[in-house]
Every structure is written in C-alpha cells, then in structure tokens.
Amino acid sequence: MKKINAKSPLGIFLFAIIPLVIILVYSGIRLDLTKEKRYTLSDNTIKVLESVKKPLTVEVYLEGDFPASFKQLQSETKFMLEEFRKINPKIDFKFIDPIKTKMSQDTLMAMGMQPSILPDVKDGKISQITLFPYAVIKYNNDGVSIPLVVQQAGIDADQQLTRSIEGLEYNLVSNIKNIAANKKKKIGILVNQDELSPDEFQGFVHLAMENYDAGPIIPKNQTELSLEDVPLLKQMSALVIAKPRKAFTDNEKVILDQYIMNGGKTLWMIDAVNAEMDTLTRSKKVMPFPIDINMTDFFFNYGIRINPALVKDVKKFALLRLVTGEVSGNPQYTSLPWPYYPLGIAENNNPITKNINPVKFEFPTSIDTLGGRKNIKTKVLFESSERTLLKQVPNYVDLKEISSVDSLGQMEKPSTPKIFAVSLEGKFNSAYASRIERKSYPGFKTSSPENKMIVIADGDVGRNKVIKGKPLPLGVDLLTNEQFGNEQFLRNALDYLLDDSNLMELRNRNIEERLLDRHRITEEKANWQWLNLLLPLAIIGLIGGLFFWLRKKKFG
C-alpha cells in the first residue's frame, strides 16, 4: 500500500488538522478567532473569578420556548458561564424555565425581576410571550437579580440584543465581584451644606446601597467639617456632595482637599445658579441668580470652572407637561419642549455613559476645562448640542419661552456646545501645598496617589421627584411617562470611582454586527435551500466515487 506523504495536503489534513481538532474537542480548549475577541475573558475578569472563595451559583431564567433572538442571548450567556466555571470550579450555573417550574409572576417580581412581553406570530395568529430575562447570583446566603437585557430607549430589537451581549461579561462579573466581596466599600453623603432632602435623594441612596455601604456624613460640631470628622472621612472610599447651597468655609475646603490627597474619590453635583421648577410653575416667571459656594479656586486647582450661566439646548431637550386648556372643568395637558431641561446623550465611547437612556438635566450650567492640568486626564461625559444658547443671570425665566424655544431673549447669546459633566483621573496636587492653611492639618499631603473625581454642573441630576410625599424612582417622570438614564448614569459613576479592578473598561467592548442581507435572503432563498440540500450529497458522492476509482485502479 502506498504511503501518504506527511507534507502533502492530505497528510497535513490527516496528521495535523484532525488530531488538533480531536485534542481541542476533548480538552475543552477553544480558539477565539473573532476580530473583537468576544469569546476571550479579560485578565481583570479572571482575577475577580479566581477571588471567589465559596460556592457561587448563577440561576438564569432563560429557558423555554421564546424567540430566536433570545436563544442567541441564552447561548452567549451559557458560553460565558461555562468559561467562568473553567476559571473557578466553585462557580456553577443552571438555566430555569419559570413556566415549566410553575413559578408565579408575583414571586419573580418579588425577586426584583420585571417581565418582558413579546409578540409571537404563528400560523397567522398573534399571541404574547412573557419572559423574565434575568440572572440571579447566589453566594453565602445572599442573592441579587441582574437584568440580562439592556433597557435603552430609541433602539431596535437587534441593537438591544447586540448591546446586551456586549455588556454581558461586565454585567455578570461586576455583580459577582460585589456579592463575593468580603467587605463593602463605604460611601459618605455630605449633610451640612443645605443639600437635597432625604426624600429627594432617596433614589440615589437606594442605588448606592445595592453594592456599597452608604450613609450620611454630619459634622460633629453641627456647624462645619473639622479635624474631628477626619477619622470618619478616612473610612469612606468615596464622598458624594449633592446640590450644596451653603458656602464651604476655608477650613472645610482644607478638609476636603486632604480627603482627596489621601485617595478619597469624590462625586460633585453642583448648582451654580438657583432656579427651581416648582417656583416657576407656581408663579409662571422666576429670576434665577448665581450661587456662590466658595469653591471656584478649589475646582480651578483641578483645571475646571463651573460657570454661573444657564444652558438652553434647543435641539436635545426633555418635554415639560403643562396645563394648556380646560374642557368641562377638566384640565387639558400638553407636553411641550423645554430647553432648560437639556438631555445628556452619550456621543463618545465612555464606559460611564455607554448604552444608557438620555440623562435629564434641570437648569444646568456649564463646565470649562481650563486646558487641563499636568498628570490629570479630563474626559467629557455629557455636553449640549451645537444649537445651544446661554442665558446670563440674574435674568428672568418665563414659561412663555416654550412658545419660541430657539429665539434669543434678553441677555441670551448663541454658543458652542457646553459641557455638563466631566471625569478627572490621575495624580492630583493639593490646592494648599504652598499656603499657610497646610499647617492646620496634621500629616498634610501635597499630592495624591492615582485618584478619580466626577463633577456635574447640575445639582438636580441625582434628585428624584416626590409626589404626595412619596419619592419616585430616580429618573422617572410620571407626567410625561418617561424613564431617563439618571439612575444608571450615577450608578456607573460610582462604579467608575470605586472600580479597583478596572472592570468598567469591559463596558467599552464592541461587537460588530454582521447582519445578513434580508433582501438577498428573500430573493435567493430557494437557491440557497437547494444548494444546502444537494452540495453535501454531491461531496459525499464525489468522495465515494474517488475511493471506488482508487480501489478499482489498485485491485482491478
């Protein structure tokens, strides 16, 4: 019998490719040949998975009869969890069909899951399918429900699926990290500068407490932050300052400066102008005025300045629902454009703002980046559109401006896009390094380790509405029936500030959509069906004929 040459195409196929395939199949090793490496776990993910010390179970409620798009999400989730289990055998998972197991919707909703209701067309009949695309992570007698589908307005079903798959690794591993952490990080909420009331800030507190320990920071002397408060501040990984309206004293600024120099992260929500919608609704006209909280030099040190001028965006804005008439004693409501409520729409690939609903700002001002500072990276999170107007204050704001949103009023001028929010990252230098105030703080530090800060030029971005004494979820507008992205934005902001594992970069993962040409599918459907049917038979027949010919030639 003639020997097969190992260097021939047939020899390479028999002695190299086939053994390699067999080894890969039985060893479980997989090769990721995708351009974006969508099936390769990041090094940071692997470190988090390896840190899990006790058994952890992920229950995925994606099992049963549902559309093909959800089948793809199910397949991607199963693959991801299989990779997790290979890294750490203590991590296990199972898929559950809530219909088959007869779990009631009330039980699932009590676990924090909201149903997704989809149309199903079969044999010309339209019915509805109720799904609960969630995963429940259980660890050490604790559990957390996480949505597997991105909730973002203004995108179609295909985009929603793609973005859900893009965020799958971050979604799963970040929650695994949080639930498996031995100790939750602490977040302090400053309560001393006439900030938002507890009812107005309840939505933010709830989202912060999902993954962190959040609590108030109240000065011990009931007047201002002092050295007595430093031990408590040192326990806080991050400090939140939401809509301060009382000026900070010079002593407080030194305390905050040294908190940052010692590695403390800060989230600032600052109003530079006093303008309240409640007052405007009652009086139809209000005169906003600047608020001086004595922090201009403090922020200047980090290369930013918050300007006391209202930003009107006549292109990207939220709607304001007002009474515009009356029929038989019943008020008639209309949703009208309100340029003082600009929308923050992510237009750059930033993990804090990616794949979230538009963020609603209320009477925001703007941030100037003053050419940056050495060792500090300044990134714009949200900015207005190219059709922006600036209103100098003090100046009247009138509800009548709704009728002509893009016309220039008194003391208004067209402007370039204005920045609403920025993130700062790097090694910060103390604003008091060469000032006499440094002597008042024991162990004064002139610079910080690698640190982060987020500054937002709107104190109401973290404010939830209160209806009849009942706080609403953050970002919900009952009058216009809209869900804005304020909650997700601030959740991402906290995760960014406190992300020691650098997992937030996973939110920047992009999966290229390689969609089929639906027009060609319709036109060439029959041709491809016949090809798929006959081509395998032809190949088998050709191989059989070749072997028959070789056998006949050798033994004939």
TrEMBL record:
A Pfam family reported for this protein in Swiss-Prot or TrEMBL: ABC_transp_aux
Matching InterPro entries: ABC_transp_unknown, DUF7088, Motility-assoc_ABC-rel_GldG
Domain DUF7088, chain residue ranges per copy: 35-137
Membrane-crossing segments per the record: 12-29, 528-550
All residue ranges annotated as the ABC-type uncharacterised transport system domain in the record: 184-493
UniProt keywords, alphabetically: Membrane, Transmembrane, Transmembrane helix
Domain of life where this protein originates: Bacteria
Name of this chain's protein: Gliding motility-associated ABC transporter substrate-binding protein GldG
Species classification: Bacteria, Pseudomonadati, Bacteroidota, Flavobacteriia, Flavobacteriales
